[in-house]
Amino acid sequence: MIDFANILFAGPCNRFCPFCIGKEVPDRVNLKNLDTYPPRNWSAFVAECHAHEIREIVFTGTTTDPHLYKHEARLIHRVREDLPGAKISIHTNGALSLKKIDTFNLYDRACISFPSFNTTTYAAMMGVPQVPDLGRLLERAEIPVKVSCIINEHNAHEVEPFLLRLSELGVQRVVLRRLYGDTRTWDILPGLTPVRYYRENPVYEIYGMEVTWWNFETTTSRSINLFADGTLSTEYLLTEVTKREFA
Length: 247
Description:
By secondary structure, the chain is an alpha/beta fold. It is built from six helices and eleven strands.
């Protein structure tokens, strides 16, 4: 069972996260594609999405942010033509979302990687001190926006005030995420009981928001992934450097 499909972008980025997911995949698949239209191996990707009846397409990146893709709006329209009825979302750091608000609102929903409102903490986790204006973005957004927050030693102590601030801004869904491969234990939601589980991850109700404590290594969801070099695989991290393309 395939749950969704990722279109992955690679190239220079506007953030310099020390835990960048691009470091976990082979360099060969991170071939720059920010000016490539359509993405390499597009026809095969579309065929697989039809074959598996995929209903959600995600614009995301390995080493860059989807907003840096030069044909972003054009590709959104292409997805709607080639995969009618599919929902399209973006996973972005939000640095360019306000500047590209018209394109941002072409998606059906968005997930913003946002670790802290504190400038020092943000710089330690994202490589630059410029914190996006999340409040202004939420005011101008015409689509649902979820916040995704990596938890590590820099921001584990900020979780409660962070969630309160998000609630005050009107955020409804938050995902707190462990770093891939991080075995440390973070007691970030002490004394709280999950209201349910999603893909084996506990979900809480906090300050009127749905807050999920997400662990990639125990999650059961599966995806089709179109990498920047055209590799098409159901394995996201591609621990072996092999080009596996569907027929």
